[in-house]
Amino acid sequence: MTEPGPTELGRFLRARREGVRPADVGLPPATASRRTPGLRREELATLAGVSIDYYTRLERGRETRPSPGVVEALARALLLDADEREFLRSLAAQAARRTPQPPAPPSRSVRGTVRLLLETVRPNPAYVLSRTYDMLAANPGGGRLHAGLAEWPARQRNTIRYTFLHPAARELFPDWEQKARGCVAQLRAVAGSDPDAPDLAALVGELVVKSPDFGRLWGRYEVRRAGDGEKVFRHPAVGTMTLSHEMLDLNRTGGQRLVVYMAPPGTPDHDAMVLLDHADTPALVRAD
C-alpha cells in the first residue's frame, strides 16, 4: 500500500519548524555542523510534549487528527502569532475531514448599495475585493490606484496577480519585496479555511508557474490576516503618496471586502488622492 504524502498541515509544520532558531526557544545556538535549518523534529516534539514518532507522523501526513491540545502545544512551541495559530487550527480541521465538502463558488456580484458607497466616499480611492483578491468593483480613484490594472480583462483584475505579474507593480510599490510577502501571507490565510477552493487553486497555480518570486514566498508558509495600515504608492499619474487604508468585511457576500484609502485633508497626499480621482487615465468603475 502506498503511504500518504505530506498534507498541507504537515508542510506548514515543517516550514515553520525550519524557521525557528534553537536560540529562540532557549536551546543552545546552532553550530556550523548542524545540518537541519531551524529546529529538529525531536526538539520540536519535546517542546510540544508529544512523542517524536507522533510528530513525525503528523509532518509526513500519516497522522491527520491531532487533538486541540496538541495543536495548541505545537503553536506555542513554534512561537506562532494569532494569525498563524488560527491558520494551524484551520489546517488541522481540514486534515481531519473524512469527506471534504465541495465549496460553493463565491459570488462575484456586488450589491447596488455597495456600489453607491464606492461613489459616496470619493475622492477617497475605494474598491471591492473577493476573498482571493479579485477586484470586483471600484470608484474612479480605486480603479486607477493600481496603475494599468484597468487595462486587463475584468476576470484578470486581481491585486495579487498584479503585484507579481504586472510590469508596473515594482515601480508602483517602492518596497516591492515587503508588499509581495504581505500578499502571499494574506493568501495563505485564505487557504487555511478553504485550501481546495477552485478559485484559490487556480490563482496559486498560475502564479507558481509564472512568477518564481511567488513560488519562493509561497513555500515559506507565512500567514497574515489582511487588515488596516499604511501604504506608499509611487504613482505615474500623481506622484508619490502615502495613504492609510481600512478593509471592511461585507455581510452576506462570500468573503467580499471593501477597501478604502485615506489621507488627512490639506496634505500633499490628500491632494494627490484628489488628482487621482480626476486623472485622465482609464478607471475601473464596473468590473462585472
Write up what this structure looks like:
- This protein is α+β, with helices and mostly antiparallel strands.
- It folds into 2 domains: 8-96, Orthogonal Bundle (434 Repressor (Amino-terminal Domain)); 112-277, 2-Layer Sandwich (Beta-Lactamase), CATH 3.30.450.180.
- Helix content is 44%, strand content 11%.
- It has 13 helices and 5 strands.
- Strand 1 and strand 2 (135-138) form a beta hairpin.
- Helix 1 (8-18) packs antiparallel against helix 5 and helix 2 (41-48) packs across helix 4 (68-77).
- The relative contact order is 0.13.
Features:
Beta-Lactamase; alpha+beta; five-stranded antiparallel β-sheet; 5 strands; single chain; 434 Repressor (Amino-terminal Domain); 2 domains; 288 residues; 11% strand
CATH fold type of the largest domain: Beta-Lactamase
| H and E order | HHHHHHEEHHHHHHEEEH
Overall mean confidence score, pLDDT:
86
Number of strands: 5
Taking Cα atoms only, what radius of gyration do you get, to the nearest Å? 21 Å
Strand order of the largest sheet: 2-1-5-4-3
Describe the protein's topology.
Elements: H1 8-18, H2 41-48, H3 52-60, H4 68-77, H5 82-96, H6 112-120, E1 126-129, E2 135-138, H7 140-145, H8 159-165, H9 169-172, H10 176-193, H11 198-210, H12 212-218, E3 229-235, E4 239-249, E5 257-262, H13 268-277
Antiparallel strand pairs: 1-2, 1-5, 3-4, 4-5
Helix pairs in contact: 1-5, 2-3, 2-4, 4-5, 5-10, 10-12, 11-12
